[in-house]
Design a protein that fits this description.
The structure holds two protein chains of two kinds.
Chain A (H helix, E strand, L loop, with lengths): L3 H8 L2 H29 L16 H8 L1 H34 L5 H9 L6 H14 L8 H26 L2 H9 L4 H30 L2 H6 L6 H9 L2 H4 L2 H31 L2
Helix pairs in contact in A: 2-13, 3-13, 4-5, 4-7, 4-9, 4-11, 7-9, 8-9, 9-13
Chain B lengths: L15 H6 L4 H31 L6 H8 L9 H7 L5 H4 L1 H24 L4 H20 L4 H12 L1 H35 L4 H9 L6 H12 L4 H9 L13 H25 L3 H9 L4 H29 L3 H7 L6 H7 L8 H21 L1 H7 L4
Classes of the chains: A mainly alpha, B mainly alpha.
Chain lengths: 278, 387
């Protein structure tokens, strides 16, 4: 890759590059316009989110702060997201470690099993869990625990896709050295592997968390009296009069997800640097 | 760098050192794997098996019964044998015991099939082809046995009802269109990031991907604000004076659903396509140009073929969630933009309330997606690793 500068020069003509730059800029506008509009409408002094704009107000923020249902659904969502992200990350770690390090029979089959939920449409996962929780062998009914289980299943492949390659990329000889120096299996894991993969564990957790806190299909099938935030939002969006109070929360949620996303990336990169600087 | 791991493994002759490097006993290996596999078996494979059971059940539950079941008032007919064995509530009395055992076998076959199809994409060329071949031979088997004929019958029942099948094809067309457009938009973006951006490439990549991580529902809603009758586009055009009446096709139509689906997934698929471009050895391109290829030829004959697996994987990443979509069409689709997923969902929680029928629909949907995954598993093997 030493000749990257020259190859970049050859690969694309100056005009082509300019065209791509314009395309990219337009694309970014297209990408961020809806989000920006939401932020604008969260301050708009009108009961419907429509043009023309009606002046600045903070009353929607006040209203959504005072709406108990919003707070309850947010706290339900937080509980579900933290629990499902923690469990999905733990299960992904337990599954990835042997697949990356040990002799596992039928390894391709095993790793395929961990990734299968990716290729099944979410609505199918949702209705199948619904039938089982209602009438199947595990009749725990509907509610937050059921939603949490559904989110674990869907988030698991993503966590595995983050953790498995990371564990596999770490030099085995580090662990060999540790065990030659007398560390047992648990100590090797705790003091050698864990610090190295910790950033990936955090980013797997964050991906699973962000996924769960925004998931609506499984949650709407499996929720009972207490909806999660996306389910509440989904029902609210169908009724225009409820919508305005939801936009400020949405704005804040969007800011938080951006912070989480960039935070996860920063942590991942810090981990990468640590690994390279070794 | 000949590490121990690189040596060919001869299980009988492994040295003590190597065994220890291997990290311990088979017991601990499978002990570590067990919880994950158990959770997947209990909460992913078993539920899928239940929709299979429901799709083959002979009796159609009346809406009252189903509602009672939903409220937990009806504990099912708990057949004696199965009831004691696994205490499930799916009605063996309804299914019939002679029927239950083949149903179990076929269910297991279906689940094995599901796993094998995905595994096929992760094996070597030779084994992968075999495994997927076997998997699809198994797929045909249930239709040859009598009880599962019911499942086939039910699937045929709903496919012969033109409305459902037409709706399905309409959904396929919509999902296909938005996936293709998403890929076409993502390719130049990924190409620009991979080949033109010199500094802090990954920060730009993250800026592209970040919107994907924000609330999906809100992004759908924001499009309502843009495309609605009083939205950005209509009010803008009316202010300028180009139109007098709002353009009605912009909202509550197939068009809206496809715009929103494309928008929602484009940031996500920029990632696999970017990685596909990024891993291309630049020297190949230089060599081709030294041999007289034009830039366009180099792109068409080298860059695109090498990046193809990533592009196909990206297409699937949009298509699979889009084909089962029901949230987006419900919010912005109106009557014109209705999709198969909405009908499927309404069999379970909406007005129609027919779990058997809905289960057959779900199996059908899953089958179509699996066939697609199979057809492209060769690409996924190469491209999926990028994610």
């Amino acid at each position: 890759m030493g000749a990257r500068d020259s190859s970049t020069f050859v690969l694309i003509s100056p005009i082509g590059k300019r065209v791509l730059l314009v395309f990219f800029a337009v694309f970014l506008v297209f990408l961020y316009l809806p989000t920006i509009l939401l932020v604008i409408f969260s301050f708009n002094d009108s009961t419907v989110a429509a043009f023309p704009l009606d002046g600045f107000t903070l009353r929607w923020y006040e209203l959504s702060w005072q709406t108990g249902e919003i707070r309850q659904s947010l706290s339900a969502s937080l509980k579900v997201a933290v629990a499902s992200a923690a469990i999905a990350t733990l299960l992904a770690l337990l599954g990835s470690y042997p697949l990356a390090r040990r002799n596992v029979r039928f390894r391709p089959l095993m790793s395929a099993l961990l990734l299968v939920p990716l290729v099944v449409p979410t609505v199918v996962v949702a209705v199948s869990l619904l039938t089982m929780f209602q009438r199947g062998a595990i009749p725990i009914g509907l509610g937050l625990p059921s939603i949490m289980i559904g989110h674990v299943i869907i988030a698991l492949p993503f966590a595995v896709l983050i953790l498995l390659p990371r564990i596999a990329s770490i030099d085995r000889r580090l662990e060999e050295a540790a065990s030659d120096l007398g560390a047992n299996g648990l100590q090797t894991f705790r003091f050698v592997l864990l610090p190295l993969i910790f950033p990936s564990i955090i980013s797997a957790f964050m991906i699973a968390f962000v996924f769960s806190i925004d998931e609506v299909v499984i949650a709407s099938f499996l929720s009972s009296e207490q909806p999660t935030y996306p389910v509440y939002l989904y029902s609210g969006l169908k009724f225009p009069e409820k919508t305005q109070a939801l936009i400020p929360v949405a704005t804040i949620m969007i800011l938080i997800s951006f912070l989480l996303a960039f935070g996860a990336e920063a942590i991942r990169r810090y981990g990468e640097r640590k690994l390279e600087g070794r | 760098m000949a590490t121990v791991a690189d040596k060919p493994r001869l299980p009988e002759k492994r040295s003590r050192r190597e065994r220890r490097n291997d990290g311990g006993s088979a017991l601990s290996t499978y002990g570590l794997l067990a919880p994950t596999l158990l959770v997947l078996a209990a909460f992913f494979l078993l539920p899928l098996y239940y929709i299979f059971l429901f799709s083959v059940a002979l009796k159609r539950f009346s809406p009252t019964e189903a509602l009672a079941a939903l409220n937990g008032e009806l504990n099912g007919f708990s057949g004696e044998l199965w009831g004691n064995l696994v205490s499930w509530n799916v009605d063996v009395a309804v299914l019939g015991l002679d029927f239950a055992i083949p149903a179990v076998l076929i269910g297991v076959v279906l689940i094995v099939l599901l796993v094998l199809t995905v595994a096929g994409g992760r094996l070597s060329e030779r084994h992968g082809t075999w495994i997927v071949g076997i998997a699809f031979a198994l797929l045909l088997m249930p239709f040859l046995t009598i009880p599962a004929g019911n499942s086939l019958l039910r699937i045929m029942q709903f496919t012969s009802e033109g409305i459902q099948l037409n709706l399905f094809f309409k959904s396929v067309t919509m999902a296909m269109t938005s996936s293709v457009i998403a890929v076409i938009v993502a390719i130049p973006v990924a190409y620009f990031l991979a080949f033109c951006v010199q500094r802090s490439k990954y920060t730009w990549l993250l800026i592209v991907i970040a919107p994907f991580l924000t609330s999906y529902l809100l992004r759908v809603f924001a499009w309502k604000v843009i495309l609605g009758d009083q939205g950005l586009i209509n009010s803008g055009l009316m202010t300028i004076g180009i139109i007098d009446e709002p353009l009605t096709f912009l909202i509550y139509s197939q068009f809206t659903v496809m715009v929103v689906l494309t928008y929602a997934w484009v940031p996500f698929i920029c990632l696999p396509i970017f990685l596909a471009f990024e891993t291309i050895d630049r020297r190949l391109l230089e060599a081709s140009m030294d041999l007289g290829a034009t830039r366009w030829q180099a792109f068409r004959k080298i860059t695109l073929p090498i990046a193809a697996p990533g592009v196909v994987a990206a297409f699937l990443f949009v298509f699979i969630p889009s084909i089962g979509e029901y949230v987006t069409p419900t919010l912005v689709g109106g009557v014109d933009g209705t999709m198969f997923g909405q009908n499927l969902a309404s069999q379970f929680v909406g007005g129609s309330f027919n779990w058997q029928y809905g289960s057959a629909m779900a199996l059908f949907l899953m089958g179509v997606v699996l066939i697609l995954v199979f057809a492209t598993s060769r690409f996924l093997r190469a491209g999926g690793g990028g994610l």
